[in-house]
Amino acid sequence: MPRLVLLGVIVVAAVIIYAVIDCLMSSAREVRSISKPAWLATIVLLPVLGAILWFLFGRPGRRPEPRPRANRHPTAPDDDPEFLRNLEIRRRQKEKEAELKRREQELADREKRSKQNDDEKPSSN
């Protein structure tokens, strides 16, 4: 029985010491509910209750991890998939236009040769 009491006293003392150190190490701006000196006084004057209240209501909450913004825009054009997609579309359109011009030129050359061949043939009248 005395060992159990001694163990309880050690655990309570450890919790109180941890609460005091945690309060001292916390930033005054992040402490919730009441001021940091008031929390220290509460923990020391009401040892068990003060430590429990500190952990429940005074301790700074966990800082949320920064989430990447969903609306974040790329900083450089080559990082932007939409920009790269548009470049690819423009490249394909230019290739198609060049192919179309080449075919038109071939057709015009054929018509010219055909016309020259027709002019060179003697008429059978």
What would you note in describing this structure?
With 125 residues, this protein is mostly helical. The chain has two domains: 2-58, no CATH class; 77-120. The protein contains four helices and no strands. It has helices spanning 2-25, 36-45, 47-58, 81-120. α1 runs antiparallel to α2 (36-45). The chain is rod-shaped. It starts with a helix and ends in a 5-residue tail after the last helix. The model has no long low-confidence stretch (mean pLDDT 85).
Layout of secondary structure:
Blueprint: H1 2-25, H2 36-45, H3 47-58, H4 81-120
Helix pairs in contact: 1-2, 1-3, 2-3
Structure in a nutshell:
69% of the residues lie in helices and 0% in strands.
- Tell me how many strands there are: 0
Number of helices: 4
- The pLDDT mean sits at 85
Low-confidence stretches: none
Relative strand content:
under 5%
Helix content class: 55-70%
Shape: rod-shaped
Number of domains: 2
Q: Tell me the distance between the termini.
A: 138 Å
Order of helices and strands: HHHH
Describe the main β-sheet briefly. Answer: none
Pfam family, one: PLDc_N
Subcellular location: Cell membrane
Domain Cardiolipin synthase N-terminal: 15-59
Protein name: PLD nuclease N-terminal domain-containing protein
Can you give keywords for this protein?
mainly alpha, 2 domains
